Each structure stands twice: as C-alpha cells, then as structure tokens.
Amino acid sequence: MNRNMMQAFQQFMQQNQGKDPNEMIQQMLSSGKLNQQQLNQAQQMAKQMEGPLSGMKSMFGF
C-alpha cells in the first residue's frame, strides 16, 4: 500500500469516526457514489486485508 493511499485511508477514518460503516455504505449506494459491483469488490478487498489490518488496528487504535 502506498503512502498516499495510507494518508487517504487515515483521513477517511478520522472524518468518519463514530459513524456506522453500514449506514455510510447505504448512503453511498443511494447517492450513486458506489454501485453494487464496487461494494462487492471493496468487501473482497477487506476480507483479503483482514490479516494485515488486524496488525494495523492495534497500531492506529481503532
């Protein structure tokens, strides 16, 4: 993962702190910012990243 992506991810996490992720996804789907295919891809990526992410979670404290 490159630095820009990490910074964007951190920024996204800070902006959406305390919000319900499922609610955010629903809003993005209904606004057209996200379609079902993109959502599926994102969920697959999230599953693949679960291992490395669990290490990052303790690092970032979320």
Describe, in short, the structure shown.
With 62 residues, this protein is mainly α. The chain has helices at residues 3-15, 21-31, 36-60. It has three helices and no strands.
List the topology elements.
Elements: H1 3-15, H2 21-31, H3 36-60
What does this structure look like?
There is one protein chain. The protein has 62 residues and is mainly α. Helices cover 79% and strands 0% of the residues. It has helices at residues 3-15, 21-31, 36-60. The protein is globular and about 35 Å long.
> What is the string of helix and strand elements?
HHH
Helix content: over 70%
Average residue pLDDT:
79
**Are there runs of 5+ residues with pLDDT below 50, and where?**
none
Largest sheet: none
**Separate helix tally:** 3
Proportion of residues in extended strands: under 5%
Structural class comes to mainly alpha
Please compute the radius of gyration using only Cα atoms: 13 Å
Distance between the termini: 19 Å
Number of strands: 0
Shape: globular
Pick out its properties.
3 helices; 79% helix; mainly alpha; 62 residues
